[in-house]
Amino acid sequence: MTQRPDRPAPPPWERRSERTVPVPRDARRPRDPQRRRPVDRPAPADDPPRRGQARSAPIPSAPTRVGQAWGAPARVDPVHGAPARVTGRPRDARPPQAAAPVAGDATERTQPVGKAPGRAGAAREKTAGEGRHGTTSRLPANRRRPPAPGGRPRRRRLGPALATTAAATALPGLGHLILRRHRTGGLILGAFLIGVVSLAVALLTMGRSDLLETVLSTRFLGVAAVLSLLAASAWITVIVRTYLLAKPTRMDTGRRLLGAGVVTALCLVIAVPFGLAAEVANSQRNLLNTLFRGGGTSAADAIKQPRLNVLLLGSDAGPDRTGARTDTMMVASIDTRTSKTLLFSLPRNIQRAQFPPGSAMAEKFPDGFHDPSDPLSGNYLLNAVYAYAHENPAVAPSGPTPDPGINLLSSSITYMLGLPLDYYLEVNMAGFSSIIDAVGGVSVDVGPVPIPINGVTADGRHVRPSGYIQPGRQELDGEEALWFARSRRDSTDYDRMSRQRCLIQAVLNQKSPADLLTNFQSVATAATDNITTNIPQDILPKLVSLAGEGGGLHLQSVAFDPSLPDPNQRDGQFNTARPDPTYMRSVAEAAIAGRPLVGTPTTPTSTPWATARRAAGPTATPAPTTPPPSATPTSLADSCAPQTP
């Protein structure tokens, strides 16, 4: 390579082909192969001192260039004026072996002969405040963990780690406090306590009506479902974080699986109740949105009214009949101040049902709903008005619901009773059994004789029953409760109406909101599939509040059957074949006003079990009784009480 004349040739130690000579092997400290530990012998005089060792004489400088002897002064670079660095030396160059130390020699070290301290010993010689690199620790003295006894570091164990994680499961933030993370633990625990106290204060200070309005609000239920999921996620995060901070750093596979399993179980303890709360809130929200869509009287107007009138219908669309028929028809008139409720029961076999004057049905049937060519036809009873409207929707009013059957039947009942209907609630009797099963059954007094299951065909023929409901106090499931309410074998329609009222009374008295909440999923499913109504969501808190005030609803019943006195009839009884709308309106008005009903009956009033006792004993004749001078609404609690035969 041609060199420039103005620059001297580079010295040999700057060539890249040269390499630094490695430390000779014989300069290392030999080890004893038997004990496998460093031999206790003094280090050579030219060996650099270890960490923490003191020097008594300067160490000869290492060679900085090729050919320089150990201990000789370094050569100065003539160009740069700095000591030349070593880039390599021949392999045969060896540092001179130091002779054995001589007493009084100036190059002898002051360190006594013995085992040199290792890394662990040097670390133990550090002070409590000395850091990793010999500097003072940044943590204040009150936050440093005290050293373990004997100078050894504290070892984490799986058992205490799981116990600390369980403490965080019981009370969020407690695990961090145990691990001496006071700031983080205090923040977590404080947030948890603030949330609990705020919820408790809200429950204690809110009134009953405000609480019901909040619980039955779809917006609140949606927020509650989201907050439940967020609270569960935050709590589970605290549990997992506590375990990660407390667990040992090194674990075998078995302990690692054990710890993961225990932490998973602790997380499920928190996730299950919060998940269930979110599911219940979301299901109730969906139920309110699906079932209570409104359409009737607005909530603002309904709350101002002295009474709310609700039409209760039980439709039966069996395979042995064409269309659906409302075999159960009641009007519940609720006092919005006292919660006293009157049930006006209308038999399914009322003939010649009347309609408002001027309506299409009144013009088509001026003498009532019947067929002159077949006066005894079952297709022209009150329970057939619903199906007739579906077959002839042109004759039905256009409101208040989209269902022509509900509209036509409501107009007829409103005209005959003189009660404006605010809402309706229709229950499919085929799904009534699933609703009873959803609430856990019901306990009723069957009476002195068994009640047949089936036994009557659609055309009225009696066949062999498929079973019996035994007499006395019985716990009925859904199927048995359905036949208790609809059986007509060995009894009449009026006895069946009485049993239906007693069943409603039993359900309202025995089933609390806690029972509905316990089985809410099944209740919501059964109600959504089998109940239709036009009750708005805004009126629900008022209705539920009325049902809970004063020990529940106080039900009284007025049945428009032959047990009702009617002075306009020859026999003094209400005639279902030719009902008098004027008299029916006067009875409803007197019952609401609390006055005695007009008229004096000429025969004793029948009870739910009267016809059954007559069927059980053909030769038995009822004892003569003195009829009361007037009739009043009957308390369902008294009429449904157990009676001895």
UniProtKB/TrEMBL annotation:
Residue stretches of biased makeup (Low complexity): 600-623
Ranges for region Disordered: 1-159, 560-581, 595-645
Domain of life according to the entry: Bacteria
The Cell envelope-related transcriptional attenuator domain, residue ranges: 325-510
Swiss-Prot/TrEMBL keywords: Membrane, Transmembrane, Transmembrane helix
Bias (Basic and acidic residues) ranges: 1-50, 122-133
Biased composition (Basic residues): 141-158
InterPro entries xref list: LytR/CpsA/Psr_CW_biosynth, LytR_CpsA_psr
The keyword Transmembrane is assigned to this record: yes
Residue intervals passing through the bilayer: 158-179, 186-207, 219-245, 257-278
Gene3D superfamilies xref list: LCP protein
Protein family membership: Belongs to the LytR/CpsA/Psr (LCP) family.
Entry protein name: Cell envelope-related transcriptional attenuator domain-containing protein
Top-level taxonomy: Bacteria, Bacillati, Actinomycetota, Actinomycetes, Pseudonocardiales
